[in-house]
Amino acid sequence: MAGGSYDEIAIFGGNSNSWLVDEICDYIGITRGRADVFKFSNDNTFVRIGESVRQKDVYAIQSFTTPVNDAIMELLIMIDTLTRASAGRITAVIPYYGYGRTDKKDQPRVPITARLVAKLIVQAGADRVLTVDLHAGQIQGFFDVPVDEMSAMFMTAHYFREKRLANPVVVSPDLGNTKRARNFAEILEAPLAIIEKRRVGDGDKSQVLNLIGSVAGSHVVIVDDEIDTGGSITQAAKVCLEHGATEVYASCIHAVFSGPAVERLEASPITEIVATNTIALPAPKRFDKLTVLSVAPLLGEAIQRIHAGTSVSTAYRATGAFQARLSLVTPE
To answer: Is 114 within 8 Å of 97 (Cβ atoms)?
Structure first.
């Protein structure tokens, strides 16, 4: 696809989510760019681009997942390498933006790491950023370059719409996630309930205080942007059942699944957990209750529209995000 003053699209990827990089390339119909990304014996990261990128429209894809600091360094070094190789334009494609939860000073003497990482990406040479469902919308403003934030929420919502659940109710597991859950509920044409909770201390533990709304006799879908240790989502599921829910499902965009998450989710009363592949899930993090949808069509369409200089918002309809045609990931 021709695009502005730049030559053809070139796509490169780090090591954090190679499966997704390959899926995006397959969707667009191009060959993945050749690059060596590895560590020397002294733990230094090294990147070598194996083809010319002069005046090309380059997309460097990397999810900030475990080990997150290595993933960030790989992207920074790749962007620097592409800049020094005279790439025409460099777009950092970050399906999952790690450190996104550190987006403000919520207590004395703490960092705003989400902003620090954004400044590093821009300083390395990125001309724009493409990402999926940031933890907080204000993170877009941390970048001094254009940011396109796509949402996979429409994809996950339509998956549940096609299930035609009897008497569905969408539940937000906390007050901060209410807007996302409300949009999800509108697609399902379902009412919204909210779990009010207070986080205890600096760790991952939280205390549920109250359920706002009714879930009695309903099929509940708990909606969040990410599942980390699984504590909040499993606790929310138990609360919904205690308040009379018939069955509980869970939906998230980013399946972090750290620590005891897999064990908690498998042992929980949740019938099905639906997530996307913004984060690569190895075999130990896959289980029978988990359904993974691919964001490759969404990101592939967005990349083509950025390249062509056309509206990125049309990528949703073009990928069938408002339709029933959802791409399920085949377990590796």
So the answer is: yes
Q: Return d(Cα 29, Cα 1) in angstroms, integer.
A: 10
Rounded Cα distance, 33 and 82, in Å:
12
Count Cβ atoms below 10 Å from residue 315 Cβ, excluding itself.
Answer: 22
9-13 and 45-49 as β-strands: parallel, antiparallel, unpaired? Answer: unpaired
Q: What is the pLDDT of residue 314?
A: 74
Tokens matching residue 48:
């070598």
Nearest-angstrom CA–CA distance, 60 and 82: 9
Is pLDDT at 331 greater than 50 in this prediction? no
For residues 93 and 131, the answer to whether their CB atoms sit within 8 Å is yes
**Are the folds of 9-152+295-318 and 153-293 the same?**
yes
Distance, CA of 146 to CA of 305 (rounded, Å):
14
- The whole-model pTM stands at 0.92
The type of residue at 151 is: S
Whether 2 has a pLDDT exceeding 60, the answer reads: no
Distance in angstroms (rounded) separating the CA atoms of residues 165 and 160: 7
CATH architecture of 9-152+295-318: 3-Layer(aba) Sandwich (3.40)
Would you call 46 helix, strand, or coil by DSSP? strand
Its CATH class, for the domain covering 153-293, is alpha beta
Q: How far is CA 17 from CA 62, 66, 76, 95, 332, in A?
A: 7, 10, 16, 9, 12
Q: Which residues are catalytic?
A: 197
Report the candidate in 291, 254, 255, 253 with the shortest Cα–Cα distance to residue 273: 291
- Domain boundaries of the chain, sorted by first residue: 9-152+295-318, 153-293
Per-residue confidence at 39, pLDDT binned at 50, 70, 90? very high
Q: What is the pLDDT of residues 125-160, one digit of tens each?
A: 999 999 999 999 899 999 999 999 999 999 999 999
CB atoms within 10 A of CB 176: 13
Q: According to the model, what pLDDT value does residue 200 have?
A: 59
- Residue 199 pLDDT > 80: no
